[in-house]
Amino acid sequence: MTTDMENNDSTSSTGEIFLVDSDEPIMNIAFDALEMIRKNKKIIVKGKGEMCSKAVAVSNILTERMLKETAKFGKIDVDSEMLDDGQLISTIKLAIVMTD
Questions:
Q1: Are 51 and 24 spatial neighbours (Cβ–Cβ below 8 Å)?
Q2: Which of 3, 21, 43, 89 is the most exposed place for a label (fewest CB within 10 A)?
């Protein structure tokens, strides 16, 4: 499965986290995210490392194609995390909110 929903106090007020973490086709991932945003009205699409570009693509598909004029981007965070071995890995979080 392509999603990993983290449901804790820090995400309950900001939206469900949709973690892009597989090599499935982009449209399959976008449909999974679409199902989640229709239930929750707000999601945070998150990508790490090589999955950052796929997270951006999923977010664009949602806002520009699937939910045209009914969803918009909220806060976008670009950051990096330190791995246990000392390497830095890029991360991105894109909030998408239903506007209706």
A1: no
A2: 89
Q: How far is CA 74 from the centre of its chain?
A: 11
> Strand 71-82 relative to strand 88-98: parallel, antiparallel, unpaired?
antiparallel
- Over the stretch 8-21, which tens digit does the pLDDT of each residue have? 333 334 689 999 99
**Furthest-apart CA pair in the chain: how many Å?**
45
- What is the architecture, at CATH level 2, of domain 9-98? 2-Layer Sandwich (3.30)
Indicate yes or no: pTM above 0.90: no
Q: How far apart are CA 47 and CA 32, in angstroms?
A: 15
